[in-house]
Each structure stands twice: as C-alpha cells, then as structure tokens.
Records
---
Amino acid sequence: MLFSISALDSSGARCRLQEEHTSRETCASSLLGRGYRIIYLHEKSVFFKKKTDSSALLMELHELVSAGLTVQKSFEIMNQGNKDMGSLIDGIRRGEKVSAVLSTSGLIGVTEAVILAAGEDAGNFPEALKTARDFALSVRTIKTKVISMLYYPLFLLVLMTAAGIFMLFGVLPRITALFAELDISLPRSTRTAIEIISFISQYKFTILIYRTIYSVREQLFFKILSVPIAGNFLRHHYQLMLLHPLALLFSRGLNVRQIINSIKQINAAPLRHFTADLEKLVSSGVKISEAFKNSPLFTRRQKELTAISEEAGNFGQMIEHLARTNDAEYEQSIKGLMSLLEPLLIAIIGAFLLIFIVLFILPMVAVDIG
C-alpha cells in the first residue's frame, strides 16, 4: 500500500513523503524509528474507495465515552461492527494518544486531530471529543449541500465534454478529409479554430500552463480572495479549518507557543502563512491580533474585533464567537457561489454552441454555396 505522509524530521522541519508499506502500523513504526514525528499518515486514495465518515465515528465514540466507558472499551464495542478498529485498540494499549491513533489511521482529518489533542493535553477529552464531533458534522453537512447542488451542473459539463471530444476526434477529421477530397478549402474561421485547438492540445503547451499556475498558485489564491463571491467562499472555508481548533486551544488556557505548535499541524498553505506570521510576531513580542491584521484571510471587521478583544482581555471568547459566526456565513457564501453556476453554465453552453457552429455548420454552408 502507498501512503502519503506529512511529518517533522529530527530538526523540526516539516517534510512530505510517499512510501510503500504492508500496513499503517509498519509505516508508522518505520517513520518513528527514523526519528520522524508524524503529523498525518493516509493511504493514497483509490477510485471508488469508500471513505470513513469521521463525523459518524466521532459521534459514536462521544456517546460511548459520555456513558462512562473508557476509550479502549469504546473501541472494542465499535470493533464489533468495524474490523478496522483493531489497530486503534492496539495503539491505545501501547499508551498512544487517541488523537494520534485516529489521525495515523486516517479515520479523522487533521483539524479534528488538533482539537482532540488539545483536549487530551488539557485533561478534558470528552468536551474536546464533542467539539470535534460538532466540527465534523458541520463539515459533512456543508459537503452534502455542495455535492447535491453540483449534481446537475456536473452532469451537463460531463455530457458536453463527452460530446465535444466525440465531435473533435470523431467527426471533425472526417469533415476535414472530405473537404480535402473535394478540393474545397475550409472557411478561414474554421481553419483558425482548428489551429487553436491543435495548439492547445499539444503536450508542451499543457505542461507550460500547469507549471505557470503551479509556480504562482499561492499568489493566485490571495488574488482570488479579493473576488467578491469566490473570495468569500475560500475565506470562510479556511476560517472553518482554523477558528474552531483555535477557540478550543484558547479556552484550555494554553500559552501561545503551545497553540502555535498545535495549529501548525493543519496542512493548508494559507494557514501555514498565517501560522508562520503569528509565530514570528509572537517571538518579537507583538500582539496576536497583528497576525490577524496582516492576513488577507480575515475581513476588516474581524481584524477590528480581534484587536479590541485582545485589549479587553477576552481574546479567546472572541475567537469562539468568530468561529460560530463563520459557520453561518460559510453557508451563505456557498449559496452565493452556487448562484453563479446558472450564468456560468449558460456561458459554457454558449461557447460550446459557438465552437460547434464554427467547426461544423460553417463548413456545411460553404459546401452549399460552393
């Protein structure tokens, strides 16, 4: 099995690896034996492989723990209906943290793992488990809404793509050959369209576009944040990943250094920028709210609220308030993004029809005129 790994090496530097092992346990043991500290370890996804629902797992675990059972006993009960729990039980028996065991197994995401780790460190695991469960449920609800809204647009896009490929590679070559056999030249607009399509389909051109986008991906992301609807969606998406664990960490009374070390584990480039800036400012003795002020991920209102709350000494409560507010605003941003799909689909269909006319209708008209 091939595993995707994010870990800290012996010097504390973050690195990403891909390795083949017979199981997750052997992969984790190999990494730990070489001095790596695992942040997350996931088996490379396979098409049509069913992914474990972290919200359902955390909900069941929370119910059992709230009933007074130990984590190990809870896993043993859950194992009766899920054979994958065997490795988790072994990890708990070895004295590993619940957050590390669940994260290493790939059953929960990095953000949920950070929330659970904060609760374990603070000695309040049940409440952290409830927070992680609520977070996972919120993410699942949002994903379900987005997927249900995308069914129809994706169906149309797939249908038009299939039709376009068939016409370009099945019909167009025959029309071109027919015109050559009849010694009739294609209309200039059709020849131009064919040349453009041939150029775009070249392998080197595709690689060039990919490399260009990849090299400026982070700058492109921060540019998109200034776009009204798409920027709002991305901003709320990454705030969802950051604010909930941040609120929990502050509520546990952890110092800023511990908080920074915890949120470093969230593997998202925009959040790494925020965390690096926060760490730099804290080392210089600057207020935490300055990191919010410098980050394009937050609105002007959020920046003002964090600055005021830090002065008033209730920064953690403000972060919790922003996390709850962001949940509602995130759903609104999704609705706004989905409202763009209809005009976008109309534009795509219009472009498709224009290409169809230029490539197929105009040559037929030319034949009739000839």
---
Amino acid sequence: MASESATDDKRRSGGTAVAKHGALSGRDWRGVGVKSDPVPAPPRSDSKELKYYAVEMRSRRLASGDYDLLRKLADFRFELRAFLHFSESAAQEAGLQPQQHQLLLQVAGAPETVLATVAYVAKRLALKHNSAVELVDRSEREGLLRRTSDAGDKRRAILRLTRKGKQIIAKLSDEHARELNEMAPRLIAALNKVRLHSFTEVRAGSS
C-alpha cells in the first residue's frame, strides 16, 4: 500500500515519465506527459531514451521554415559530397592522395600573372604553411612537380609540374569534366533551392 501511495504521489507531481514507464523505447517518448506536461522530464541515465529526448527537444524548437531549409541544405550537401567522393576516388585510382590532386590542380591552374609558390597553394588549399611544405615535398619526391628559384627573389621557390604531373592532372581533369557534366543539373537544382529559400526569407524580412 505504501508503494502504491508513493506512485500516486509521483503521478500527481508530474513525475510520470520516468517513474511510471521506466525504460522506454525512443518512440514511446513522443506521447509521455503530453496531457499533463508538454515537456517530458528527461531520463536520468545515459541511455537511448536520453539521446532521443535531446533530439526531441531540439526538434520542438525548429519551425516549419527551418525544416524546409534543412531538407534543402541536406540535399545540396548530398549532391556535393557525391562529387567529392568521386574526385577522391579518381585521384586514388591515379596513384595520388586527394590533396596531391588538389595541389597539382592549383599549380597547373594558376593564372599567368600569379606565381605558384608554396604560400599561394597553401592559401588555395586552406592549409597551414608547414602542411603545404610537406605536401609539396612529398609530391616532389614522387616526381609530380619541381621547385625552381624565383629570379626576383632567390628565397622564394616557384612550383611547376613535371611531365608526369601534367599527364596525371590532364587525365583527372578530363574525368572530372565528364562527371560534372552528368552531375551539374542535380547540383545546380539543389543549390537553386537553397538560394530561392534565402531570397524568399530576405524578401519576407524586408516587407
């Protein structure tokens, strides 16, 4: 009788979620405490129910417009990641690490008015200077590029592709162009949905 009285007290005080149901499945938490308390009390243990509770609370704070944007961003990231996965796989099949492919591409694609130095490729690849130096050193050892002294500044080295590097980057560039030709419509469509959402939000905010 004492235990039944204690349970009744918990029910009246709003502690129904954990005391009454114990270990609940993730799906059960949707209905817990809806009538008496719209925000169920969180589980006290590090469990699946606690993780579900956190997701549920975050989702309640998202408006329908936020969901719409999240779906569009998720679609765009999916299409973008598909292309990046292709690029990484193609580089590895050509015997390069993905960053080496990007290094060769930046050196080969540098404008004629720009010197392809270590500092230049570090900026283009968003790498720290030391990391860029290591990447250049490895690629030079593998015969993909070479350093030449800058006539205007002997302390600075200019990067140029070797014949081997040019052949590899030409092959990879052709493969990427063909892949982008197929993927571009999906990428553009996903991106345009995000841009349209942002444009609509800006117009709504200014009106």
---
Amino acid sequence: MSKSRHTEAQMIGALKQVEAGRKVEDVAREVGVSKHTLYAWKAKYGGMDVSQAQEAKQLREAEEAGGGPESGQRSAAVGDPKKRLELVALKAAVEQVRAEYAFSQRRACGRMTMAVSSYRYQNRRSDEPLRTRLVELAREKPRFGYRRLHVLLGRSGEQVNHKRVHRVYREAGLMIRRKKRKHCVRVGKPLVARTSANQEWALDFLHDAVECGRAIRVLSVVDAYTRECLALEVDTSFASRRVTRVLDAIVAQRGQPLAIRCDNGPELTSRHFLAWCVERKIELVPIQPGKPTQNAHIESFHGRLREECLAVSWFQNLFDARRKIAAWRIEYNEERPHSSLGYKTPKEFAAAEAAGFYRAEREARDSNAVPCPSRSPIPAQTGQGAAESCRILT
C-alpha cells in the first residue's frame, strides 16, 4: 500500500473544515485531492482528533512490526518531508507536537522547519469591512463574479488586491453556481464521396435581417453530389413541421434521399423530425457540436450565398427577401459555373449525369439481349402448311 502524502493532522484538519460548514469541493481543491478522497478520509478518521489518530497509527505500526502497543519517541516530526505544508497546517502541526511531546515553541518549530516568527505572527488586518462591502455588492448584482465585483470596488475608490477579493469572496460563500450546458453526444462521420444524386442532402440554416431590423432565417437544402440547391426557404422562424413540409415538396419532385446531413438544432432533433426520417427510412447523419466543417458542402454553399446575395442585397421586408433569394437560387442552379463541377452549372452537371446513367442502363440492357442473327435467307420449311418465317430483333 502506497504511503499517503498527507498526514493525519492534515486529513483531520480538512474534515474539521467540512464539519464547520465549508463545501467539500472547496476543501478538496485546497488540499489537492478529490472529493471522493475526502469521503474516504471521513470513513477512516471521522469523529477523531489528531491525538486519537496518532495513537491508532502507532498501534497499527506496532502490530505490523510484531511489537507491543508502546512505541518510542525517537522522531517527533509530523508530516511527509517531501511535501511542504502551508502556513496554517504548519501551525497546527507545531501545536500538535507541543501538546504531545511537551516541546517548547522554538524546538517544535525547528522540528517542523518553521520560523518562530511565522508561528507567533498574528494577523492584525480585519477583512470584515471588505466582506460586508462584497456582500452588499453581491446582493445588488447577484450574477456578478469576483472579477466584476473587484471592478466595482475600484470604481468606488477602494483599491484592493484582486487575490484578497477572491479569498474573502470565497470565504463569504458568494461563489456562483454555473450550470454546465448539456451537449448531446455525437459521433462524427467523415464526408464520403458520393457517386449519384439523392445519395445525401445537406441541410442547415442561415441568418440575416430585413430593413426594419427583423431577423430572418433561410433554410438551405443542397444535394451533396450535383451541388444543386434544392430549396431556399425564407421565414422568421422554422418549426420542425415546417422543415418536413419543405422536404416533402422536394421529395415529390425528385424522390427521397438516402441520407440527410445536418447539425443538432432543435428543429432537426425534435421527435417529429426524427419520426419523419424513420418513417421514410432516411438515414440521419448529425454532425458533432461545434464542428461545422463536418457539413462542409452546406457551409461552402452558405459562403457563396452570403457573398453573392445577402451581402449585396437590401431587403425591404420578408417578401422582398423571398423574391430576391429565390431569383439567386435560379441563377445559382442554371447560370453560375461551379468550380468543383468542372465549371458547369449544377443543372448542366445533373442533366449530364442523368443522361450518362440512362445511357449506361440502356447499354447494360442491350448487352443482356439475345444477339441478332445474320440476315442470311432462312430455308423454307417443308411439309403441309409450311411458310417462310423471319425474326428480326430490334
């Protein structure tokens, strides 16, 4: 069993602080252990003082060595020499040594390698006025931390060291509990090279504002292979049912995709949207939070939309925004050359791919057909009621 780097005096001192009302997390942070270690110390030393803990330790050491319960007083040093104790813990250790072995102050301080002046020092500075002032400010601004309270103290003409403010702030129990935001756990899937249309759609939202300052949102849907913009829906807000209605309209025109890549917004993680995908057997590929590059196709498209349309347009109202954004979508699909498509427009690329697909299908069908026989004359059949016959395969 490894030797603890904390003495019984330190452990019991930490437990006394917890019993006095301090938070377990704060005491554990000061001592340098986890809160679970404090609970283990409590199970071992709870309700004991330093002398009782020392007696129990001596009994254990004597029993392990095979001797009696009495041990010598050869070494009066308390603590691990590898760990330098703090001033408060050193004072407690000196007091313990003096109480157990009747040492003088100078001898006990020498054993603990502590200056006698440090042991005799009594703090004459009172933190009560600062504590009262911090409590008043904290009641006025309940969500301010010690840094902002330190700024407020400076504005009022009180020059106080920020470390002292932090110490008194903690001692007064003014620490703010901040709720950690819960993030859904996602396993990122890398972008896969698609080989045909409708294998994967990329979906995301973009924000802008109209002349009066009212915010608008743009729902973008892009085919990951042909780079066609399938929808640019503009409105002030989008519920999940509105999103599925837009997708249903696209599915009615060109069929449904095999997968949809999107982020973790509330519209795209609702029960309705998840049920819509399950009902149509569409794989949902959510990206990891804070990693928009996992949906790079839609992010690249949003860059073009922002530079070429939103940044150069002035929207008078929502209807004007819908008209101008719809016009830019037509231009993007039918006129704008796309560098990743060999400088073809998405519509030209999709048409060429569709023609190549149907041509390949026709060639495969023709290769499976019965070969056409030669056009040489077929001899007439003999027999009653016989006639010439010829079969031509087309």
---
Amino acid sequence: MPYKYPDNIPDAIKGLPAEAQKIWVTIYNSAYEQYKDNPDRESISSAVAWAKLRQAGWEQKDGKWVKVTKQKENPIMQTKNIQKEWSVDFVKVEEEMDNIEDLEQFLKTKLSTDWEKIKLSFNAYKAGELPKRVFIEVSIKNIGKDKFTSLFLKSPNQE
C-alpha cells in the first residue's frame, strides 16, 4: 500500500532520519504505482526504494543512517566514478547471467534457502519489470555481494 509521510510509514524506515524517510516514501510510492499490475509490487517497491536510497548517498554507519557527503564533481568525473563503482565483477555478473540457459533454476540450486530472499525481485526482473542492474543490487543487498557475485565469477560449466 502507498505510504504518507510522516503519518503512515512502515516500521522498517522509522529508524531513518526524516530526510531519508521522505526519500524512501517518495520512491516507494512511485514504484508502487509503476508496478501496479504486479502481485509482488510491495516487495519490489520496497527493494527499489532501499536501492535508490543508497544511491542517493545514505549509508548505515555504526548502526545509524547517515548521508554521505561527496564533493561536487563535474559530469565527466561523475560518469567515471559511476563506472568505477560498477566494477568489472558486476559487468561479469551481467554477462554470465545472460549465458545461463535457466537462470532461475541455477539460482535456486546455488542459493538454496537464500533463493527466497531474492525470488520476488527475480520474478520482477524475469517479467521485464525490474532492470537487471536493480535486480543485481537488490540481490547483493539481500544476500551479500561476495555470495551473489561468486555465483557468476566461475563459469557454471566448471562445477
């Protein structure tokens, strides 16, 4: 369901600073409307809101959410930094995902019980409702970067 700041917000964001709560609610509500035909839209909207909040510079440090301030950069430097952040590992993950014939079965087998943590976002990705990069970001958030990327850094045929 859509949320209204500050009267009606989910418990999961009550620990965020007010500015971050406003951002999260705005993004969630936008995604909620965008995915209105998807039965998993609440989970997808939440995942998108968390991913975008982090992209907006919010991080959890020492148990508290803080806005990480970065020096203003010219657009060329911003592009270079984005490319740097989207490391070779991530590009390799994208490529390997495309090379796996039955990605869903592959993930179910490799992740076992962790599959449930990314199942909804995978279904949205598979249906074309979630971009691949957002699916990867959500998966990393839910099961960890090392665990998720290591699935793809080795060729599935090598195992």
